[in-house]
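Hi all, posting the design record for the shared folder.

TITLE: backbone redesign
STEP: 1 of 1
STRUCTURE INPUT:
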C-alpha cells in the first residue's frame, strides 16, 4: 500500500514539474521580443519635432527609419526643410505626397519615396466589405506622375522597407509569393512582441541606444483611446494598431522560409 502511494506521489510530482516547466516555457516564448523592429510611439509630432527625433535616432545607426503616418502639408518653406533633411539621410522611408505641392500627387496620393532612389506605394491591403485586414499586396501598379499614361510596378511600403533591411531575403519572398497575390497576413503578435519607446524617452535620451543599432525603427502612433486600432482576422489579436499591422507584415517577409 505504501509502495502504491509513493508511486502515485512520484507521478503527481512529475506531472506537476512538467506543467510548471511547460508554463514557464510558454511564458518565456510569449514574453520574447522581436528584436529586428523597434517602434517609437509618437502622437503626430510637429515637423520640427520629427526632425529632432530623427536626429537622435540616427546617432544609434539604425538600418532603416520608417515614418508610419503622414504629415499635414503646411507650405513650401517648412516642407523644403524636411526635404533637405530627408535627402541627406538615405535610410529613411517616409510618405512624400505631403512634402510637395498636393497637385503634383493627385494621381498617386498614397505614393512614398525612399531617398536612396527607390519609390514605393503605401501598403495595399485586400479588403472585403468588412474592411478586415486579412491580406496585402507586395507589389502594386501606379502612374509615376500626373502626365503618365501607363502604369508602372512598384513595391508596396513593407517591401520597400525590407529591401533596405535585407534585400536578399525580400527577393526570395517575392519570388516565392508574387504569383499568389494578395498574400495572407501572418499575425505573429500584438505590440507586446516589439520593443516600444515613447517620443519623450527618445528626445530626452532616456532609452538603450544599442537597441536601435542596425534595426528597423518605425515611428507611429499607438493611441491608448483606440483610434488607431483596426480589425484583423486573427482570433487571438482581433484588433491591432496600424503601425503594428505593418510591423507584422515586415516580420512576415523577413522570417519567411
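Okay, here is what came back for every position:
SEQUENCE:
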Amino acid at each position: 500500500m505504501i509502495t502504491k502511494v509513493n508511486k502515485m506521489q512520484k507521478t503527481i510530482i512529475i506531472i506537476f514539474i512538467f506543467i510548471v516547466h511547460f508554463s514557464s516555457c510558454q511564458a518565456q516564448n510569449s514574453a520574447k521580443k522581436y528584436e529586428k523592429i523597434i517602434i517609437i510611439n509618437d502622437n503626430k509630432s510637429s515637423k520640427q519635432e520629427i526632425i529632432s527625433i530623427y536626429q537622435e535616432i540616427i546617432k544609434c545607426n539604425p538600418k532603416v527609419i520608417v515614418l508610419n503616418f503622414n504629415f499635414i502639408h503646411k507650405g513650401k518653406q517648412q516642407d523644403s526643410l524636411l526635404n533637405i533633411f530627408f535627402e541627406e539621410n538615405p535610410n529613411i522611408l517616409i510618405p512624400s505626397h505631403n512634402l510637395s505641392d498636393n497637385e503634383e500627387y493627385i494621381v498617386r496620393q498614397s505614393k512614398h519615396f525612399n531617398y536612396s532612389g527607390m519609390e514605393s506605394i503605401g501598403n495595399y491591403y485586400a479588403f472585403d466589405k468588412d474592411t478586415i485586414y486579412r491580406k496585402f499586396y507586395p507589389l502594386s501598379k501606379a502612374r509615376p506622375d500626373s502626365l503618365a499614361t501607363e502604369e508602372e510596378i512598384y513595391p508596396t511600403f513593407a517591401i520597400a522597407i525590407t529591401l533596405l533591411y535585407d534585400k536578399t531575403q525580400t527577393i526570395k519572398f517575392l519570388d516565392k509569393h508574387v504569383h499568389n497575390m494578395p498574400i495572407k497576413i501572418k499575425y505573429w503578435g500584438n505590440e507586446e512582441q516589439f520593443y516600444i519607446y515613447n517620443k519623450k524617452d527618445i528626445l530626452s535620451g532616456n532609452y538603450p541606444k544599442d537597441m536601435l543599432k542596425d534595426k528597423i525603427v518605425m515611428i507611429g502612433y499607438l493611441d491608448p483611446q483606440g483610434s488607431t486600432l483596426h480589425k484583423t482576422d486573427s482570433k487571438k489579436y482581433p484588433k491591432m494598431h496600424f503601425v503594428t499591422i505593418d510591423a507584422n507584415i515586415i516580420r512576415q517577409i523577413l522570417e519567411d522560409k
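COMMENT: Confidence is low (pLDDT under 50) at residues 22-30, 72-77, 96-118.
Let me know if anyone wants the other runs.
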